[in-house]
Each structure stands twice: as C-alpha cells, then as structure tokens.
Write a structure and sequence with these properties.
Number of strands: 12
Largest sheet: 6 strands, antiparallel
Order of helices and strands: HEHEEEEEEEEHHHHHEEE
Structural class: alpha+beta
Shape: globular
Distance between the termini: 28 Å
Radius of gyration: 20 Å
Strand content: 15-25%
Oligomer: single chain
Length: 290
DNA sequence: GTACTTGTTGAACG
DNA sequence: TCGTTCAACAAGTA
C-alpha cells in the first residue's frame, strides 16, 4: 500500500539505475493494465531512452527522450522490479511472497526489456495499478484532469492555501478530508492516521469544528510525518519493500496505524481504538486525540 | 465461507 | 456547480 513516502523511496532507488537506459521492447501480458491500446503504448516506448525518473503524488514518472512520459501507479499491490542477468537488482513496492524468486511470474503484467540486459517488471497481484503514457509537456493537464492537489512539499502547498481549501469541506470528517487527493496529494490511510495522532485530533472531527490553531497543527504534522517517513524509507505494512527489497524503517515508528487494542505510545493511558469511517478504518487514541 | 484490506474514480445524491 | 457519500475494482489473508 504505497503512499507518498513509499513511492518516493521506490523512485529514488530505481532512478540511478534507470537513467540513460534504453527501452528495447515491451511485453504487455495484461493489456487492461495499460490505459492505451497496447500498440500505441509500444510505439511511443520502444527504442526510447530514459532521461529522468520522477514522482508526482503517488505516481512514478519515467521521462523518455521522445517527449513522452510513462506514468505508473502502483495502487495497493503494484511493484517495480529491476533485474539483470545476474538476478534481482532492485525491487520496489508491495512484495508478493515468493514473487521475486522467479521472474516473470503470473503477476508480471508488463515487462520492459532494457539495454545492458536489464529487465523492468511491473507486477501487480490485484491488478489495481495502471500504466499510461502522456506527452511530457501535457503532464500538468493530465494531473489537472485528475484534480490532483499540490505536492505537500511544494511551495504552493502553504498554510494559507491549506486553511482555505480545507475549510471548504466544512461538514466532512477531517480524516476523510485529508484522504481527498485534491486537497493535498500523497496521503493515504496510514499517514492520515499518523498525522491526526501527531496533531492530537480525533479522525471524526468535522472540519468546521476545527480552530485556526488546530488547522495550523495539521499542516505542520503533514510535513513532519511525511518527512520522517521518507527519511526512514517508508512503512512496511503487509510486505512493502523499498528498492533494495528491504522493509521500510517507518514501521517501528507508527503510533496508531495497525496498533488497535494496544497502549498509546504517547500518553501511556489510552488504548488505541479502531473505528470505521465510510469504508475506511481509522485508528486513534481516545485519550490524547480530541 | 466470511469479513477485511487498500487508492482512486465515477455515479448519484442534495 | 459544488459538496458529499459510496460502490466498485481484485484477490489474498485472518
């Protein structure tokens, strides 16, 4: 379940190895994973050289020297694995147990044959992820069509913007509001719960009940929690692996997510509760989050 | 066998 | 038009 820190980690790990590589061919085993007809995708990708690897929200962007960009969303269970003749080099994303031992396997839906006898596998157990190809100079339009909000570390995501945009969702629970990618891009269930714990706010609080200082607190917590998670190379929960196949270091630092029924690590008094909001779970400490 | 999990989107509502 | 809610997608794990 990669969120922004996990996608950032995978991108950083793969980037130095993919730069300047040429895509010799693409094997599309499950066409529905790609938004375009396979022939169109192939035409723009074959023989192109990789000139940059970036991230926007939870999407990995692979820029080609042809003026096109491959956009990859791992969703919950997607993974990118780079293998050479000697075997596995880099694996990132949700790991399928035993899935990297033999490649390709039944979850390998798209396979890029690269120069230097390297191969990049897009594997996805649940087939939620997708690939699409866009003109590099039309990416902003693509993001706008998806109503993707600002990056949490971009200057456009400042406290004024956040306050105004958040207040528009007056009746929504703060938990739900933060999951909305139009407000800020990159937060998922784990980090929203961690942000709200850090800001000492109950996930069910309606936005119009938040005081100015509380909104400012959420803004700060978003940045500090995400920075920390990136520094620790993401969270491993249900088998996320970074680009080196290693579990993320954030797991040991989680305060509420996945800790229901256990003692609060901050106040040492509350027992972490797990509730359901809409179709999503929220974990929080009933003592120190109000 | 059943409940549960996730990110995103599009439909349907007021 | 905007805000809001919710089902659907897929398939493995508990």
């Amino acid at each position: 379940m990669p969120e922004l820190p996990e996608v950032e980690t995978v991108k950083n790990d793969l980037r130095p190895l993919l730069l300047k590589m040429r895509i010799l061919d693409v094997d599309i085993r499950l066409p529905k994973i790609i938004k375009e007809p396979a022939s169109i995708f192939k035409r723009q990708v074959r023989r192109a050289k990789i000139i940059d690897v970036r991230r926007r929200a939870k999407i990995i962007l692979i820029d080609l020297d042809t003026g096109w960009t491959i956009c990859i969303h791992l969703k919950m269970t997607g993974q990118l694995i780079l293998a050479s003749r000697r075997g596995l080099e880099r694996a990132g994303g949700h790991q399928i147990i035993g899935g990297t031992e033999q490649l390709p396997n039944k979850f390998s839906h798209v396979i890029f044959k690269l120069s230097n006898s390297r191969t990049l596998f897009f594997n996805d157990l649940r087939q939620f992820g997708y690939l699409t190809i866009k003109r590099t100079n039309k990416l902003e339009k693509f993001f706008a069509e998806k109503s993707l909000g600002p990056e949490p570390f971009h200057q456009s995501f400042n406290s004024d913007y956040f306050s105004v945009a958040l207040k528009r969702k007056r009746k929504t629970a703060i938990k739900t509001a933060l999951l909305d990618q139009t407000l800020v891009a990159g937060l998922g269930n784990i980090y929203v719960d961690e942000v709200l714990f850090d800001a000492r706010l109950k996930p069910t609080r309606r936005v119009n009940t938040l005081r100015t200082a509380e909104i400012a607190g959420i803004y700060k917590s978003i940045q500090s929690i995400l920075r920390k998670a990136i520094r620790l190379r993401g969270t491993t929960f249900r088998n996320f692996r970074d680009g080196h196949g290693q579990p993320g270091g954030m797991l040991r630092h989680l305060m509420v997510y996945g800790r229901s029924g256990r003692l609060c690590r901050r106040c040492k008094k509350g027992t972490i509760q797990k509730i359901r909001q809409g179709s999503r779970s929220s974990s929080y400490c009933p003592i120190c989050q109000n």
